[in-house]
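Worked example

This section walks through a single chain of length 344. The input is the sequence exactly as stored; nothing has been trimmed or padded.
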Amino acid sequence: MSDLSIGTRRQALGALAALALPGIGLAPVAVRAQGLDLAARLQSWPLNVKQTTRIHDVAPAPDGGVWYAAQQSGHLGWFDPKTGKSELIALGGGSAPHGVIQGPDGAAWLTDGGQQAIVRVAWPSREIRKFPLPEGTPYANLNTAAFDGAGDLWFTGQSGYVGRVALKTDGGKVSVKASPKGRGPYGICATPRGDVWWCSLAGSYIAQIDRKSGESRVVQPPTPEQGARRVWSDSQGRIWVAEWMSGNLSMHDPRKGDGPASWRTWRAPGEHPKVYAVYVDERDIVWATEWNGNALLRFDPATERFDRLVMPRAGTLIRQILGRPGEVWLPESGTEHISVLKTA
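Given that input, the structure is written out below as tokens.
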């Protein structure tokens, strides 16, 4: 399968210009008009499967492939970048997986809203095990998961729930708690220390989980009604936040407490930006997706500068992004493509 054309440097970076936005809590930022040629580092493939997958989240697999949550078709997808081919593993009747991550056991772990369950797919055996939410739990609209430092899995449900699969501490027992402010729990991540943070899209806050009690401590970002959609930790344990409604990229440093001094905020480039996903790579470079501009953003915290790549296909609708050293993987739910940007 041949690589897709990714356009020229002019097409990818022509929209970049210096930008400095005033405002309370907003740090001055710049977009580099010259610098990294992100377009030359992008490679894309169509999924080329018989069913429409509506590919959602992605996660690198331990064998060099890439897993993806096929939300519409109800599968775990596995993409092989060496051949450009995909495999679909059926997860069960009514399946609609939203998120997928690699566990410390090397298996794929999915949040399956259609089955109201966390689903484990052993790798490479592809054996499936389901961890249903407790009987009587209202529809949780399962979203995303992360493993803590002890090896337990935590997950969010947009209907207003945060839960745990106590794989290491309680024999795989599944428990669910109502979130502090009702509906909205969305992205979730773990820090290098093993702490777990999540964010609320509808509630516009982030929160840290007490891993013993399962309760969540709310931390309020400085921008009201910002729509915190996804979170990711860097190597220092700072929490980076994709703010969907405000169009900001923000960062909370827990070492500085919970007040305004613990936050930095930068306006994403472009007109009326909608920042969806955020991921921090092994060099602490921050990557984000911006929907209104159909763009991938690279942010360097050291220089506080953005690089912006307009995707070569319209309407990519890139969901959560994940990577491994030297690679950032992008699921294009709007085009049925999967892409990688080589960072090294």
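What to look for: Confidence is low (pLDDT under 50) at residues 1-24.
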